[in-house]
Amino acid sequence: MTMTTRCILCNAEHGLCLVLADCESFHCKECGESFDVADLEEHIMQLRKLVCVSRAAEKE
Ligand SMILES: [Zn+2]
User: Fold this and answer.
1) Distance from Cα 30 to the centre of ligand 1, integer Å
2) Cα–Cα distance, 40 to 54 (Å, whole number)
3) From residue 12, how far is each of 25, 35, 38 by CA, in Å?
4) Neighbours of ion ligand 1 (CB under 5 A)
5) From the CA of 6, how far away is ligand 1's center (Å)?
6) From the CA of 7, how far away is ligand 1's center (Å)?
7) What pLDDT was estimated at residue 56?
8) Is 12:31 a contact under the CB 8 Å cutoff?
9) pLDDT tens-digit profile, the chain (60 residues)
10) Ligand 1 center from residue 54 Cα (angstroms)
């Protein structure tokens, strides 16, 4: 069983697969890149920063 999500690099929908046999590695079948959990966390933090800036701008 694998879970898929949008690739953080090439943005292919369902490109990024979490390999449950090895829960620390992600592989994109579209661009062939591999990512670890730290790569994803960094990406999430950048997205969160964007959301925060966007929300702050809305209030002004
Ligand atoms: Zn990709």
Assistant:
1) 5
2) 21
3) 17, 14, 20
4) 7, 9-10, 15, 28, 30-31
5) 8
6) 5
7) 95
8) yes
9) 678 889 999 999 999 988 776 667 888 999 999 988 899 899 999 999 999 999 999 887
10) 26
